[in-house]
Amino acid sequence: MACPLQSTRACNMAPPQKDSSPIVRPDIDWIPSYKVFKERVQRLAALNLNRPTTLPAGWPSKITSERVWSGSDFKSEDDYVVKLSQEDIAEIESALEYFKALDLGPDDVSKDNFPLPNLGSKLEEVADIIHNGRGFVILRGLEPDKYSSVDNILLYLGVTSYIAETRGMQDFDGRMILHIQAVRKESDVAQHGSMPNSPYVNRAQPFHTDLCDVLSLYALGVAAYGGESFLASSATIYNEIARLRPDVIHVLAKDDWPFDEFYKNQYHTRPLLYNFSSSDGKQEHGPGFQFSRRPLTGAHFSPHHPLVPAMSEVQAEALDMVYFLAKEHALEIQLQKGDMQIFNNFAMLHARSSFVDEGEHKRHMLRLWLRNEQKMWRAEPKSEGLEKVGREVYEWEKEEWRREVGTKWDIEQSPPELRVDFKRASCA
Predict the structure, then answer these.
(1) Do 261 and 363 contact (CB within 8 A), yes or no?
(2) For residue 248, what are the CA distances in angstroms to 154, 276, 325?
(3) What's the chain's Rg over C-alpha atoms?
(4) What is the per-residue DSSP string for 329-365?
(5) Which residue blocks in 231-358 are alpha helix, DSSP H?
(6) Of 38, 41, 192, 425, which has the most beta carbons under 10 Å away?
(7) pLDDT digits over 310-348, tens only?
(8) What angle do CA 198, 199, 201 make, to 5 degrees?
(9) Which region, left, alpha or beta, applies to residue 17 given φ > 0 means left and ψ of -120 to 50 means alpha?
(10) Annotated region Disordered: where (predicted)?
(11) CATH code for position 264
(12) DSSP string for residues in 144-169
């Protein structure tokens, strides 16, 4: 008899029985409670479990690189904001007109046909910061209201092509760019009974990663209130856990975390924590995370399939430990209209506060999933789970059905009611 709820690692669930007991899940929320977390830590400590006192073989005792930072280390925005000069902006606008004269589409934008002879070298330095430095940069100075919707997309693609040239497909319908904006308020859930995914609601999002190598947001508009962006260094989080609780590194690196795939009526298991190196294997970058909370905890707007296995209490402790360390060490950023925020998705976790749109002040971000083929990070040892995600996102042309779907470029907004993320649910 077929397994009713498939695991992509193995079919390890028996068919449901009418008299089977419901799965008991830990008391853990999508946005966690610190009180519940501390009580769990104390409860597990009292059990005197036989926990490892050393790190797993091959995992560093400490990461030492520029990507180890805490939000308080940055004295001002000048530490991470690259301000575009009038000459830089004029060069972008000239490149935009050059590209438009070629009568090509968004898929075709590249360094070769979007010439930035002076700014280009600065953007390549940004690429190095993202992959080998602190892990993030904000480009500031553009005025999106000066440009049409199409031109904003084209110049965004042109600028980012110097940082990470390969663009990822973000959903099953072939969308290469997403418009992140609120189409409903969190308070509307009672009226509608269901809600779009978090990118399309004004609710806060907890710390997580996306399904990409490099994530970029271009702020076409900002909210009247709230909507702050938070970044937290995965290296700092790792160092803290490795120093204080090496047993938790074992838990995070084990491949038994049950990820609900929601739309597919199946789940898969994999680690949350990976060791990364450069694509040629010559440079070790060290540990980084790849996970979102929602497939692990479920949420009030997105409950678990009833047959997805529960995480353990030990896993719940580890998951919330990562969250609260991220919160402690996070950098809060108030993005301005026209900002391009670009960061290494494997090098940090990101979150967002709730927000309120009013009048002309409405949050509207263009999101790209990017990859730099020369500087990309790879998990060591090779992770089939991450490799599969990478193929789905960046090597979609190798899949016949994806080629048939083709790419889609939404100009004004993305349709969240119809949108289905990749199986592993991309956000939060």
Answers:
(1) no
(2) 44, 19, 13
(3) 22
(4) HPEEE-PPTT-EEEEETTTEEEEE--EE-BTTB--EE
(5) 234-244, 246-253, 294-297, 313-329
(6) 425
(7) 999 999 999 999 999 999 999 999 999 999 999 999 999
(8) 65
(9) beta
(10) 1-20
(11) 3.60.130.10
(12) GGGS-HHHHHHHHHHHHTTT--EE--
Domain count, the chain: 1
Is position 415 within any domain?
Answer: no
The per-residue pLDDT for range 72-119, each reduced to its tens digit, is 999 999 999 999 999 999 999 999 999 999 999 999 999 999 999 999
Evaluate whether residue 2 is within a structural domain. Answer: no
For residue 169, what are its two tokens?
A: 């497909």
Is 15 within a domain? no
Do residues 415 and 199 touch, judged by C-beta distance below 8 A?
A: no
Q: Helices 313-329 and 234-244: crossing angle, nearest 10°?
A: 130
* CB contact at 8 A, 283 and 133: no
As a whole number of Å, the end-to-end CA separation of the chain is 34
Beta-bridge mates of residue 287: 275
| d(C-alpha 111, C-alpha 119), whole Å | 11
Question: How large is the average pLDDT for residues 406-414?
Answer: 88
1 within some domain: no
Dist CA 37 CA 54 (whole Å): 23
Amino acid symbol at 80: Y
Q: Has residue 12 got a pLDDT over 70?
A: no
Quote the CA–CA distance of 71 and 108 in Å, as a whole number. Answer: 38
Whether 169 contacts 367, CB under 8 Å: no
Average pLDDT value for residue range 178-192 = 69
Q: What angle do CA 180, 185, 188 make, to 5 degrees?
A: 140
Task: State which residues form the domain around 315.
Answer: 28-183+196-405
Distances (CA, A) of 384 to 261, 284, 390: 17, 19, 10
How many angstroms separate the Cα of 133 from the Cα of each of 66, 121, 125, 151, 326?
Answer: 5, 16, 10, 31, 19
How many C-beta atoms surround the C-beta of residue 280 within 10 A? 10
